[in-house]
Amino acid sequence: MVVVGGGIAGVSTVAELRKGGYAGELVLVSADAVPYDRPPLSKAYLAGEKSLDAIALQHPDWYADQQVLLVGGTVAVAVRPEVGEVELADGRVLSADRIVLATGGRAVRPAFGEVRRDAPVHVLRDVADADRLRTQLVPGARLLIVGGGLIGAEVASTARGLGAEVVLVDPLDPPLAAAVGTEVARWLHGLHAEHGVEALTTTVETLLETRAGVAVQLKGEPDSREFDAVLVAVGLVPETGLAEAAGLETSRGILVDSGQVTSHPSVLAVGDCARLRDHRRAEHWEAAQRDGARAAATILQSEPLPATAPWWWSDRYGLHVEGVGEMRSADAEHRTVVRGVVGEPPFAAFTLRGERVVGAVTVDDPAATKAVRRLIDRGVDVRPADLADPAQNLRTLLRR
Amino acid sequence: MTGNSGNGGNSTGIRVASVDDIPEGEGIAISSDITGTEDDIAILRDDDGTCWALNDTCTHETASLAEGWVEDGDVECPLHSSRFNLKTGKVDGLPATRDTVPHRVEVRDGEVYLFPGERP
Fold it and tell me: CATH number for the A318-399 domain, one of 1.20.1280.260, 3.40.50.720, 3.30.390.30, 2.102.30.10?
């Protein structure tokens, strides 16, 4: 078995295979010498509070303990499922009865004009990206962040903590409304201004490299602005090149079934590179981890994990934000219920369909997230008044 | 990780709470001033009513496991949902990678006694 890709999806696949009793050979091909966790790249790692060792996905000894052959520092250049081979960039060819693709994604880099490759225009996907960006986050440095989603907002917070001057642009006002609902999104976005970030609803027309840095023309502004660095955080594209070359079916991701199997029966795909037919890619940490567990269950022919509402977290300006399930705007079928007061953490907002919660976003109230996730998973009927009452322990609602 | 000095080996344990003070599925943190250990200790009550004790600080970042979600033999960290086995302290779910330290707990006459530094 060869797993191609050392992110959370790939590492979870090998971990779950061994946990489930898989006794065969296991090879993990990782572009990084030792696989690491990506969420800290916009937070504690970028801030310099955590080292690369501290964000390892597993202790380096773990691979040997688990009899996983970690082939680090190289990438696969071809997979040939019909002959059971994975070819590496260094020329080695690994044999594989089954192949799991966990190739992740790469950050979208829109064409903003003529920018040299080594211009200080960054994306943030791996440790090298974070290291390059960090060298520029010094007190007084002028940083433009393009994209006010989770990663853009996290970097804005980290950069302010390091003393940089930050301008953040996004075409949406507020960003993230689809993920957290308009009311919470507006408050979250407003935190930027409270913390000294200039948040603008606009887009970038052009970027021009100058001697001092980057000159940026924002739409609707008479003059361009000078920045020392630019971070583009506008999403990712799934890494499907190996799969396409191998003739697998792809469409905004490597298409998989509910057991993570691709259009070729001996190839599975997990994490950001994969997309379940007729679904959107989740692009969250836990979703990738669960993909790995599902792939392992398919290979082991064991019972797959029970389904659960998707969950994510994010941190900005010292606040811990979590989302679970699906937030929807109020309409004929859906209503919004708030626990506490939006803007006064801890608080939570829920989307209800009839008597059921279908989604929630919480700020500094992770216990509420955990309770709601179980309310969704178990299909428990709730009364809006119980959800809204901060004195009501949500866990007790599960016991009815 | 553990300071096993102080009260380790205490034959009667330290009375730290009444069992009714800890709702099923929740936990309380006992200060290291009381336990004599390096870290605070979380007393965690599983949803079957049994009590367990682990070092309080999640090995991933710095969250208090006493504020976590206790269910089916695991505690789930409040921040990133790392899971630890209540009995052994072993990691049952990422992102934590380092096991934590379990401590022995006894419930006598409705009171919870903690034996810091002793294995369960």
Answer: 3.30.390.30
Q: What is the mean pLDDT of chain A?
A: 95
Give me the CATH code for the A2-106+236-300 domain, please.
3.50.50.60
Q: Which residues are paired to B52 by β-bridges?
A: B44
Q: Are B75 and B69 in contact (CB under 8 A)?
A: yes
The CATH H-level superfamily of A121-232 is FAD/NAD(P)-binding domain (3.50.50.60)
Q: How far apart are CA B86 and CA A31, in angstroms?
A: 35
Q: What's the mean pLDDT in A242-269?
A: 97
Number of helices (H), then strands (E), in chain B: 1, 10
Please indicate if any CB of chain B lies within 8 Å of the CB of A59. Answer: yes
> What pLDDT sits at residue A85?
97
User: Which positions in chain B touch A395 (Cβ < 8 Å)?
Assistant: 23, 25-26
Strand, coil or helix: what is A369? helix
Contact B97 A59 (CB under 8 A): yes
Cβ-based contacts of B48 with chain A (< 8 Å): none
User: With a CB-CB cutoff of 8 Å, which residues 2-31 of chain A face chain B?
Assistant: 8, 12, 15
pLDDT band at B8 (very low <50, low <70, confident <90, very high): very low
pLDDT > 70 in chain A, percent: 98
ipTM field: 0.81
